Amino acid sequence: MFNKKNNLAVLILAAGKGTRMKSRVTKVLHELRGAPLLSYPIGLAVSLGAKEIIVVAGKNKKAIINFVSSRYEQKNIKVIEQRKLLGTADAVSSSMVRLGRGISDLLVLYGDQPLLSLKTALSLLAAHYRNRSVCTLLTAKIEDAAGYGRIIRNPEGNIIKICEDADLSFQDAGINEVNAGSCIFKKDELAKALKLIRPDNKKKEYYLTEAIGLLAEAGKNISSVYPKEQYEVLGINSRYDLMNLENILNKEAIKRLLDKGVTILSPETTFIDYNVKIGRDTLIKPFVYIGGNVSIGKNCVVGPFCHIRGGSKINDNSVVGSFAEVNRSFIGKNCRIKHFSYLGDARLGRDVNIGAGTVTANFDGKNKNITKIGDKAFIGSDSILIAPVKVGKSSVTGAGSVITKGKDIPDKAIALGVPAKIYAK
């Protein structure tokens, strides 16, 4: 691991127009697994303990400022504007004057490259400091390198330049080692190189990659590392790319859970969002969607055709069956929610049975309200519980009953009718 005493700044390039997204939403604010793309490199920069974090925006500056200020109030993240999109070197130059005193190294990340892992970033930094390099690049070898800048090495294997795809010679077109984007520079050496960059390319832009050739010509030490996983270098330029990364992350999430003893019968019809925890010997049946920050215990059965939405917790030995939806709810141990039910903002105790067609009506038009159901309660089919309401321990609601707002059912009672009347057991 690199020494955090080094004064590291992180620069996140996020000024691109994203025209291929065909959207009024700026590209870096499109969501991947429930979080905006820009949140991934920002989160990485925070995890690295960067002394400063700068986001370079373009005409999307206002949207990015709104996002950053709403999510990262305590992180001291600066957003600056690249007024004319003249290339990556121009974007970096625009930010250099904003760096505080004492910054020794600058890590460059990309707002549309969300899969770079903390392990790979730490490997990149460790190699940079260990080798005392002026620049350390993240590179990758891929079969289809079209569209990527190529890493050009001399016969001794040293990096001498990066050539953008549009400017490749016929001789270099077959190179499959590519520039993966992320890189770290000694700040002062980079500042010198930036002054020498000229737009001598087909796009007439100032390429940051030109700094590599200039540093190599000056005899500076340039090193490189490979990512821990090949997919980490993938960026997003289109909705197809976004879909592709969603699929990659879903497969990774499913593989991780399979390795931990979860049975998933149909991975191709199962979607598992970020930060999902599932216990050993739980069975996930086909056509299941599990949202972010969900926890499911051991020996549970989920599905088929059900939706566990974000923030829900399902405890051990419980069943959530066909066409059921659970939203922001706590389900105790040994509960049964077998068919066609919606539980929103519900709190279930142990050994609760939820009959087919049950609905906890949690929204009153202004607020989301909570339904509490005690241990061993039996909720009859087609019951509607209008929150806020409480059903006591070992109580029963009759089929088709409507339990109105505030009409709590005491322990060991029966509620029947529309609206329900309460009877002693």
From TrEMBL:
Listed InterPro entries: Bifunctional_GlmU, GlmU-like, GMPPB_C, Hexapep, NTP_transferase_dom, Nucleotide-diphossugar_trans, Trimer_LpxA-like_sf
EC number(s) reported in the record: 2.7.7.23, 2.3.1.157
Binding-site residues for acetyl-CoA, renumbered to this chain: A356, S381, A399
Positions that bind UDP-N-acetyl-alpha-D-glucosamine: 13-16, 27, 82, 87-88, 110-112, 149, 164, 179, 237, 309, 342, 353
GO molecular function, one term: UDP-N-acetylglucosamine diphosphorylase activity
Annotated region described as N-acetyltransferase, given as residue ranges: 261-425
Cofactor note: Binds 1 Mg(2+) ion per subunit.
Cofactor(s) the protein requires to work: Mg(2+)
A Pfam cross-reference name: NTP_transferase
Record keywords: Acyltransferase, Cell shape, Cell wall biogenesis/degradation, Cytoplasm, Magnesium, Metal-binding, Multifunctional enzyme, Nucleotidyltransferase, Peptidoglycan synthesis, Repeat, Transferase
Catalytic-site annotation from UniProt: H339 (proton acceptor)
Region spans: Linker: 240-260
Pathway involvement of the protein, from the record: Nucleotide-sugar biosynthesis; UDP-N-acetyl-alpha-D-glucosamine biosynthesis; N-acetyl-alpha-D-glucosamine 1-phosphate from alpha-D-glucosamine 6-phosphate (route II): step 2/2; Bacterial outer membrane biogenesis; LPS lipid A biosynthesis; Nucleotide-sugar biosynthesis; UDP-N-acetyl-alpha-D-glucosamine biosynthesis; UDP-N-acetyl-alpha-D-glucosamine from N-acetyl-alpha-D-glucosamine 1-phosphate: step 1/1
Subcellular location: Cytoplasm
Binding site for Mg(2+): D112, N237
Record field: catalytic activity: alpha-D-glucosamine 1-phosphate + acetyl-CoA = N-acetyl-alpha-D-glucosamine 1-phosphate + CoA + H(+); N-acetyl-alpha-D-glucosamine 1-phosphate + UTP + H(+) = UDP-N-acetyl-alpha-D-glucosamine + diphosphate
Domain of life: Bacteria
Primary localization: cytoplasm
Domain Nucleotidyl transferase: 11-226
Mannose-1-phosphate guanyltransferase C-terminal domain: residues covered: 275-359
The family this protein is said to belong to: In the C-terminal section; belongs to the transferase hexapeptide repeat family.
Subunit structure: Homotrimer.
General function of this protein: Catalyzes the last two sequential reactions in the de novo biosynthetic pathway for UDP-N-acetylglucosamine (UDP-GlcNAc). The C-terminal domain catalyzes the transfer of acetyl group from acetyl coenzyme A to glucosamine-1-phosphate (GlcN-1-P) to produce N-acetylglucosamine-1-phosphate (GlcNAc-1-P), which is converted into UDP-GlcNAc by the transfer of uridine 5-monophosphate (from uridine 5-triphosphate), a reaction catalyzed by the N-terminal domain.
Name of the protein this chain belongs to: Bifunctional protein GlmU
Native source organism of the sequence: Candidatus Ghiorseimicrobium undicola
Record lineage: Bacteria, Pseudomonadati, Candidatus Omnitrophota, Candidatus Ghiorseimicrobium
Gene name, Swiss-Prot/TrEMBL: glmU
